[in-house]
Amino acid sequence: MSNGQQGQQAQQKKYLVTGGAGYVGSVVAAHLLEAGHRVTVLDDLSTGHRAAVPADAEFIEGRVQDLSSGSGAEWFDASYDGVLHFAAFSQVGESVTNPEKYWRNNVGGSTELIAAMRDAGVRTLVFSSTAATYGEPVHTPIREDAGTAPTNPYGASKLAVDHMISGECAAHGLAAVSLRYFNVAGAYGAYGERHDPESHLIPLVLQVAQGRREAISVFGDDYPTPDGTCIRDYIHVADLAEAHLLALDAARPGEHLICNLGNGNGFSVREVIETVRKVTGHPIPEITAARRGGDPAVLVASAEQARDRLGWRPRRADLAAIVADAWTFAQKRENEA
What we know:
Helices cover 38% and strands 18% of the residues. It contains 10 helices and 14 strands. The strands form 4 sheets. Strands 3-2-1-4-5-6-11 form a 7-stranded parallel sheet, sandwiched between helices. A 3-stranded mixed sheet has the order 12-9-14.
């Protein structure tokens, strides 16, 4: 065995990725494997897809709620170096009409996961949080010390888990990092968005380019922005995945570090639509609709803390490149259908 191989083997770690059959979870699992780590994906496939789980990952079909009930004890033990927790429901609209589903799953599941980690002696956690914890921003770009006032049960459930993690770190020495995402987009090779129903702007506009949707609805064109449409911060899913690996290294016992992840620059709805037109070469008909309640004019992240504490910088900030990766993945899925 060469010195390089010995070094790689010495650095290999073992991680549990909950929700690893989903969009972000699958890309993070792929990055962990590429870094030489061992990966177990736990997913009940209620919203995830078995085809999205990387081939080299061990897959266990199940729920995080089962880990502390005894059924997970036979495999979830101190051999795991950490957990990356993505298992959650994430539809904002559904959370308003069915809030109990979000409290039961997102908060209840996380409670059981953290208890199982404590019992097993697994002491590192990276949590998939969200910019929805901030609610309506008072200042932009949004920093981690901004007030948290979520406007829907989805954001509130994620904030509740963040509070839970802080308590676990203080009381029991957990090393944890919460990463608050803004708008995740793009694809990474065989891994991309497979949501059903789809609610994210870029894949929805790509569906118009594919002929699967007649037009894209623009919800409000009278916002106080240069073109009247909402501005959002888009981050490439591969940049996001790299932040998770850096977060594992940055986690410190007894500390709960919270970092926003975004490009720090925003793109309007109309800029996204025009970029899709250029990338795909297809016309994209628009329908102007009324504003949606609770849609802020501008949501842009300050990622200074991620740069300072994680050493993270987004490397794929160009919107056209993000759209091109998503378009390649969408076409591949269409051809396979």
